[in-house]
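Deviations from the work plan: none for this task. Representative record:
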Amino acid sequence: MLKPLGDRVILEVTQEEEKTVGGLVLASAAKEKPQTAKVVAVGEGNVLENGQKSPMPVAVGDMVMFEKYSGTEVKYDGSEYLIIAAKDIMAIVE
Amino acid sequence: MLKPLGDRVILEVTQEEEKTVGGLVLASAAKEKPQTAKVVAVGEGNVLENGQKSPMPVAVGDMVMFEKYSGTEVKYDGSEYLIIAAKDIMAIVE
Amino acid sequence: MLKPLGDRVILEVTQEEEKTVGGLVLASAAKEKPQTAKVVAVGEGNVLENGQKSPMPVAVGDMVMFEKYSGTEVKYDGSEYLIIAAKDIMAIVE
Amino acid sequence: MLKPLGDRVILEVTQEEEKTVGGLVLASAAKEKPQTAKVVAVGEGNVLENGQKSPMPVAVGDMVMFEKYSGTEVKYDGSEYLIIAAKDIMAIVE
Amino acid sequence: MLKPLGDRVILEVTQEEEKTVGGLVLASAAKEKPQTAKVVAVGEGNVLENGQKSPMPVAVGDMVMFEKYSGTEVKYDGSEYLIIAAKDIMAIVE
Amino acid sequence: MLKPLGDRVILEVTQEEEKTVGGLVLASAAKEKPQTAKVVAVGEGNVLENGQKSPMPVAVGDMVMFEKYSGTEVKYDGSEYLIIAAKDIMAIVE
Amino acid sequence: MLKPLGDRVILEVTQEEEKTVGGLVLASAAKEKPQTAKVVAVGEGNVLENGQKSPMPVAVGDMVMFEKYSGTEVKYDGSEYLIIAAKDIMAIVE
C-alpha cells in the first residue's frame, strides 16, 4: 500500500473511452491526457504554523478533476498512479 | 455536477456574437478569446492561517470578466467550462 | 456597469493630444502609450489576514498616472477601459 | 501637482555637469545616467499588516542616490521626473 | 556515520532488478532511475518560527517513494546515498 | 557625506597589491575584483514588522569580505564607494 | 581571523586523496569537487522575527558534507576557505 505524505493524494487515472472506427481502437498520438481520476489514498495534510494539520478537501473514492501536468506518475504493484498535491485538484465530479 | 475546490470558480464562457457578412459567419482565426463568462459554481474559499475560509467575491449567476490566459478549460457532460481562481476574476458585469 | 473586484481599479485612459502638422493628425506608430487616466470605478480592497479590507488609495474621478504595461484592457459597452491593480497606480495628478 | 502613492517618491533628476572641450559641450552617447536626484514629493508609506504606515526615509528637498534602472520616468507639466519606490533609494547626500 | 541536518533524510536507493536475457544483465542506458529507497537516517526537523522543530514524517527503516531529480547523491564509506528534504518524499510504501 | 538608508552599508574597496615584475606593475585584465573592503558608513537598519530596526552586524572601520557582484558602485566627491546590503557582507576580517 | 556573519559558516575544504598509479598522482580534469569539509568558524545565527538568533547546527571542528556549488570561495592569509550558509550544510560526518 502507498501512504501519501503531507497534503498529497494518490489518484488512479481513469482511462477515457477511446473512439473506435468499426471496432478498431484509434490510438491517437494527439489524444489529450485524461484529467479525471479516482482518489485511492489521502495524506494527513500539511503541518500548519500553529501545529494543526491542513484539512484535506477530498476523500477516498471521490472522482476528481486535476490540473494538467501536475503530480508525479508512479508505478506500484503493477499499476500506475498519480501522486498529486491537494491544491492541484480543481474539482470533485459529483 | 462539478464542485470546485478551494477558491476556484467554474465559468461557462459566453460565446460572443461573431460578425457576419451577408449571413456568412466569419470564423476569424485572429478573433480574440471572449473574456466574459457566467459563474455556474463557486468553491468554499481557501482555508486561511486562522482556520477560517476566504470569502468568495462572486455568486452563481454573476456575469464576470476574467484575466486572459488564466484558468483551465475542462469538458464535462458535453459542455465546456473554465475552472478559474477567484483572484483571476477582474470584475462583475452588472 | 463594471464592478472591479479586490483591489482593482477601472480606468478610462485619456487620449493625449496628438501633434498635428498643418491640421493633419500624425498617427505615429512610435507614439508612446498614454500613462494618464481617469478613475471610473474602485474595488472594495483585498481581504487582509485580519479580515479587514485594504484601504483604496484612489477615488472615482481622480486623474492618475500608472505603471506602463500594467493592467488589462477590456472593452465594455463600446468603450475601452483598463482594469488595473491599485498598487500599479503611481501617483494622483492633482 | 503629482502626489505619489504608497511608498513612492518623486525625484527631479539633477543633470550632471558635462565635460566641455574649449566651451564645446560634449554630448557623449556613452555618458552614464546620473544617479543623484532631488526629492520633490514623498508618498505616505505603504499600509503594513498592523494597519500603520511604513515610515518614509527621505523628505522633500533631500538630495539622494538611487539604484540604476529603478523607477519610472514620467513627464508632467513640461518637466521630467522619476517616480521611484523608497526602497530603491540608497543614500542621502548630506 | 552521516547525521542529516534540518529536515533532511538520508536514503539508500534500492536497485531495481534489471531485466536479463539468458542470464545476461541488460545495462539499459534508458533505464529510469529508481524512485524507491530505504530511509537510513532522519534529521531533527527544521526550526520553526516558534522555536519548535517540524515533525519528521518518516522513520529509519521506512521504504519511501521520492520526487525524481530531488536530493543530492553523496558517497560515504564506499556506499552511495541520497540526501533529500523530507518535503520531497511523496509516500511511504507499506 | 553619504548617509546609507535601511540596512545598507558603504564600503571603501581596498585595492589589493598588484604583482610587479621588476618594478613594472602588471595590470592584468584577468585580475579578480577585490573582495575586501573597509566600512565607512552604516545605515540604521530595516524597519521590522514590530516597528523596531534590524541590528547592523558591522561598524564603521571594520574590514569586511563581501559577496562578489553584490552592491552598487557609486562615485562621490572624487572617490569610489560600494553601497551594499548588510546581508551581502559575509565576514569581518579581524 | 575571519568572523562569519549571520548564519554563515567557514569551511576548510578537505582535499580528497587522489588515486595514484605507481606513485604518480593522477590530476584528473574530471575529478569531482570534494564535498567534505571541516568547520573552522561559525556565525552567531540570523536574527529571527522575535529578536532571537537562529541556532547554528554545526560547531567548530565538525566534518560536514555540503551542497555542491553552494558557498563562496575566499582566500585569506594564504589559505582557501569556503563561506557557506548553514542551510547548505547537509550532514555532519561523525
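Confidence is low (pLDDT under 50) at residues 27-31 of chain C.
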